[in-house]
């Protein structure tokens, strides 16, 4: 059913809620996992335009992706990684389409209306602009951050 699952990772505590769900799902279905993190700092957003050098944040994000991938490969899963640069919803959608993913997995922080207005909601932007099914896992309460 789901042959390739895009797993949108934040490089934060919420990922520890999402990864076990996806590990179990991928194992049961024999799915390939595409771990995606979108670096969205100033250097990442201006990387190509200003011909910048890779920032320490981008290097740390790539190392994080590779660390999670190594853990999942050890568990017998097929995993590839991608570090995208820019606006998270835009890059998630673009990558899912380009890589022909048939499921997008993300975490939700449970913001209420005002939180979404001020912090934005990556999930809302993704869900309103794709036909690919989305699995949303609520982040554990101790992993919730105050930013979106």
Instruction: Output the CATH topology.
Output: Rossmann fold
Helix and strand pattern: EHEHHHEHEHHE
Question: How far apart lie the N and C ends?
Answer: 30 Å
Low-confidence stretches: 113-119, 143-148
Q: Domain count, please report it.
A: 1
CATH structural architecture: 3-Layer(aba) Sandwich
Strand order of the largest sheet: 3-2-1-4-5
**Rg over C-alpha atoms, rounded to the nearest angstrom:** 15 Å
List the helices and strands and how they pair.
Elements: E1 4-8, H1 15-29, E2 32-39, H2 42-45, H3 47-50, H4 56-74, E3 78-85, H5 88-98, E4 103-108, H6 113-119, H7 122-127, E5 134-138
Parallel strand pairs: 1-2, 1-4, 2-3, 4-5
Keywords:
single chain; 148 residues; alpha/beta; Rossmann fold; five-stranded parallel beta sheet; 7 helices; 45% helix; disordered C terminus
């Amino acid at each position: 059913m789901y042959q390739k699952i895009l797993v949108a990772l934040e490089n934060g505590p919420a990922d520890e809620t999402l990864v076990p769900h996806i590990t179990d799902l991928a194992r049961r279905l024999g799915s390939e996992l595409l771990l995606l993190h979108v670096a969205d700092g100033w250097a990442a957003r201006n990387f190509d335009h200003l011909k910048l050098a890779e920032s320490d944040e981008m290097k740390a994000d790539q190392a994080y992706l590779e660390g999670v991938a190594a853990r999942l490969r050890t568990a017998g899963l097929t995993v590839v990684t991608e570090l995208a640069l820019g606006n998270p919803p835009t890059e998630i959608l673009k990558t899912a389409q380009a890589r022909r993913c048939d499921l997008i997995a993300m975490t939700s922080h449970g913001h209420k209306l005002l939180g979404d207005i001020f912090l934005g909601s990556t999930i809302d932007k993704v869900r309103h602009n794709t036909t690919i099914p989305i699995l949303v896992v609520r982040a554990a309460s101790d992993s919730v951050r105050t930013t979106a």
